[in-house]
Structure formats: C-alpha cells, structure tokens
Structure of Ribose ABC transporter permease:
Amino acid sequence: MTDMTASGPAQSGTTSALLMLMKARTFIALILVFTYFAIFAPNFLSAANMVIMSKHVALNAFLAIGMTFVIVSGGIDLSVGSIVGLCGMVAGFLLLNGIDIGLGWSIQFNTLEICLIVCLVGIAIGALNGFLITKLNVAPFIATLGTLYIARGAALLSSEGETFPNLTGNAEYGSDTYRMIGSGSLLGVPISIWMLIVVGLVAAYIAKRTPLGRFIYAVGGNERAAGLSGVKVTRVKFFVYMFSGFCAALVGIIISSQLVAAHPATGDTFELNAIAAAVLGGTSMSGGRGRIGGTIVGAFVIGVLSDGLVMMGVSAFWQTVIKGLVIVAAVVIDQAQQKVQARVTLQSQAMVGK
C-alpha cells in the first residue's frame, strides 16, 4: 500500500515533466537546429547570413500568423501562396503602368497607395474564401484550393506569364521608395522585421485581449456551441480568412520590393511552410488551440532549417522531405501532448477527490 502511494506522486511528476517538455518543443527544436548549423554550416553565424535569414523568416512568419488564426478557427487556407504571387504582380503592374483610363491618360500611384491597393486585393481574396465557406458551405480545403488556382491563373494572365522587371518606381509619382520596403532598414534592422513585429503584436493582442480572439478559439473548439452562445460564426470566419489574405499581400509586397521584380510563380508552395510553422508552434490542426508567439518561433525553426540546409549543400529534394518529416513529427507530438494533458487532468481530479 505504501509503494502505491509513493509511486503515485512520482508518476504524476514524471507525466508533468513530460508535458512541459512537449509544450516547450518548439523552443527546444529551435535551439537544437540553430546549434547544429552554427557548428557544421560554414559562415552560418555571419552577420550577412543573419540578416538574410531574418528576412526569410519574416516572410514565412507573416503567412504563418494568418494561417494560425485560420487553423485555430477550424479551417485551412491553401491559397496564401497564390495570393502572394498575385499581389506581387498587382504591385508590379501599378508601378510600371498605373491604370489606363483612356484618351492617353493614366492614373499613377505613390508607394503608400500601391501598398493599400495590394492589401485590399489580398483582403478581397480572403473575403471570397470566407464567402465560399460560410455562405455556400464549401469545405475550407476545397474552397481555398479553388482560390489557389484562381489567384495563380490571374497572376499569370496579368502578364501572360512574363515577369514585371525593374520595379524601381518613379520619383515624379512618389513610387521610387517602394523598393525600400524590402531592402531598407531602420536602426540597423530590416524594415520587413519591423513590419513583422507590428503585425505579430497586433495579432497576439487580438488573440489574447479581445472578444474577437476569444470567439476565434470558441469557433475552432466547438462551432455549434459557439453559435448557440451568441458568437457570430460567419463574421469570425470572414475575419480570419481576410486577415490571412492581408498577411499574404504583405509578403507579396515585400518580395517584389526585395527582388525589384514580380513573377507570377512567386509564392509557390509557401502555404506548406506556413502550415508547418503554425503546427510546429503548437497550433492544433483540429482547431481551438494555438499561440501567435509559438507560431513565430515555429517560423524561425523552418527558416533556420531551410537556410542551414542550403548552406550545407543539401539537395532541394531532400529539403522538401525533411520539411515533410518535421510537419508529421509536429502533429504526432501534438497528439501525444493532448493525451498526456488529459492524463494530467485526470490525475489532478483524482488527487482533489482524495
């Protein structure tokens, strides 16, 4: 009888420790991956590589933040990569051509106006996803798969598959500062990182401090119960897909600015990296659970892994395989975490009952 009493707290302590390790898996993975490449990848810790890697991480983090809201609400967004490509092409078209209104006249835009228009395009595609899912009852996977093809086709049609080159802008119209978005820096930190900090803080505030954030989690946890509790489920779903489209538009702007060019194939498979970062950061694919901070750390893991593998000369094919394994491992650990969490809850209830 004494042995059983002694083993109970010990087993409970072991289970709790295991649960803590699972919750910290993203940080542990980041430390391990960073340490490995710091040792074995040449010039990995150089200042130039840190700047380049931070820009790559920012691109994935933007998409992953939007994807987190979508997945937490119980959905999925496969269209973000195509939205990136289309929004980059819209920016390139406006920079080079403006809008022709006939009679030899055209409307030209400055940098801020171009960015606003591009963001509205991303939000509009997100609204289309929301409409298909909420009003026409199309499954999120199918709806966003359809808009993936629509957005990619529109990007190709905008230039007949060609690149919009030399997006340097025009000082006369105030668009010559466009390229600074992707290549400029403030206080030694790339502007894209400052943008990520702002978007990340806003997203975290929405998730933790606002009724909308609570509604998003409620819809993902149990949509029917949330609806019966008075949550406007349709509005919540519209918001998460529109926010995801907005984040994708920002990535389209940043990439076209960095490259000083826009290509319709930009953003291909970006949605996979975004999903990987969100899941690795603790977002549950079944909905109702996820953290913006964890997602950003997950984006760092994917970014460090991708850049490190490139620096070590690993084949692009193997990089894809490794990313797939990371996604599967993250989901398996997430499922195990839920089981351990349930066990800890039962043990706590049993101890309270005694």
Q: What stands out?
A: The two ends are 15 Å apart (CA to CA). The beta strands are 99-102, 105-107, 185-186, 189-190. Residues 51-337 form a domain with the ABC transporter involved in vitamin B12 uptake, BtuC fold (CATH 1.10.3470).
